[in-house]
Design goal:
Layout (H helix, E strand, L loop, with lengths): L13 H13 L2 H8 L3 H15 L4 E3 L4 E3 L1 H25 L6 E5 L1 H11 L1 H5 L4 E5 L2 H9 L5 E4 L9 E14 L1 H7 L4 H4 L6 E2 L5 H11 L9 E2 L3 H9 L4 E5 L4 H6 L3 E4 L6 E8 L7 H24 L15
Parallel strand pairs: 3-4, 3-5, 7-8
Antiparallel strand pairs: 1-2, 5-11, 6-9, 6-10, 6-11
Helix pairs in contact: 1-2, 1-3, 1-4, 2-3
Length: 324
């Protein structure tokens, strides 16, 4: 357990604290300097001065950027809300634009669905800083103030973050027509072990879950191809490399065009809920609420589109509009 951050005796230096928060959020002295309009040497000097004041290191210096130490994460969590509010007051007084909204989540969901939905906001002046990654590290960074909003693949525990359901992603068992035609009428759980499997990871997290949920058995096979990007898995499956289990939103256009076929339509398909997560203190940046509202609206449209794809027979192209 880390000690609760204190700022020593005397009034804190707000410039040092603003610089510290910028470095913490950017993960880089160079990026923070660019954001603040300062030289890198000035940013480095301010961080060193703050570390001397606190009598402890805040960051681990690496070849590419810096990594905050646990004490720095705790300090950033305490500073983010009040400093953001001060910045908003200064922007309002000076007539300046709000700060960028820091959004993070899975690369596939952000790139395929959500960033396109936010395009009108960007045209109207909303600035975005987007990061991608796995849920647990992103939630840790959200608590520390590095992000404003995070798309999480599970609901966070505890009361330190607020989560609201964003969208349900349904998983579908798919292959290109060249494979679907060969497999029609055969015992899928057995015969698919003879067909190349393409997966996001070596431990087959999505396919194994599908097998347990739908077929009530374990999947005993090894992936022919693994690539940590579901968009790349989709491309390879569409090209005829084999089969996979993918989120329906990701392959809706390919299913609608017939480039991919659904091999099996269970009455109770496996579904995973994505959550939109934020800090309970809120943000003084008005654009954060605007982005949140648009993300929720985009997710509702996604669910409506998904309703059109359900009910088509197995092996047939799914109905519904293309979506990117």
């Amino acid at each position: 357990m880390t000690d609760r951050p204190t700022l020593g005796s005397g009034p804190p230096d707000l410039n040092q604290l603003r610089t510290f928060l910028a470095v913490h959020r950017a993960g880089s002295l160079t990026a923070a300097a660019h954001h603040l309009g300062l030289s890198q040497s000035t940013v480095t000097a301010q961080i060193r001065a703050l570390e001397q004041r606190l009598d402890r290191e805040l960051f681990e210096r690496r070849a590419r950027g810096v990594t905050p130490l646990p004490y720095a994460d705790d300090l950033a969590a305490r500073l983010s809300a009040p400093l953001d509010q001060l910045a908003a007051v200064a922007d309002a007084r000076d007539g300046g634009a709000p700060e960028p909204v820091h959004l993070a989540g899975p690369a596939e969901f952000l790139g395929t669905v959500l960033l396109g939905a936010l395009a009108p906001l960007v045209a109207d002046g909303v600035q975005l800083r987007v990061a991608t990654g796995l849920t647990d590290p992103l939630l840790t960074e959200l608590r520390a103030g590095r992000h404003d909003l995070v798309i999480a693949t599970r609901r966070p525990r505890g009361r330190t973050l607020l989560a609201e359901p964003l969208a349900d992603e349904e998983f579908v068992l798919v292959a290109a027509p060249v494979w679907a035609d060969r497999l029609t009428g055969r015992d899928l759980p057995a015969v698919l072990t003879e067909v190349p499997l393409l997966s996001y990871a070596e431990d087959l997290p999505i396919a194994r879950r599908y097998w347990r949920h739908v077929f009530d058995r374990r999947l005993h096979t090894r992936a022919a191809v693994t690539v940590p990007d579901l968009r790349a898995v989709l491309a390879a499956v569409t090209a005829g490399a084999g089969w996979s289990v993918l989120p329906s939103y990701l392959c809706r256009a390919e299913l609608a065009s017939g480039a991919l076929r659904v091999l099996h339509r269970p009455t109770d398909p496996p579904i995973n809920t994505a959550y939109l997560v934020r800090r309970p203190t809120g943000s003084a940046n008005p654009h954060v609420a605007v982005v949140r509202d648009h993300l929720l609206a985009a997710a509702r449209r996604l669910d409506q589109d998904a309703d059109h794809t359900r009910g088509a027979p197995a092996g047939a192209p799914a109905a519904g509009p293309d979506r990117t």
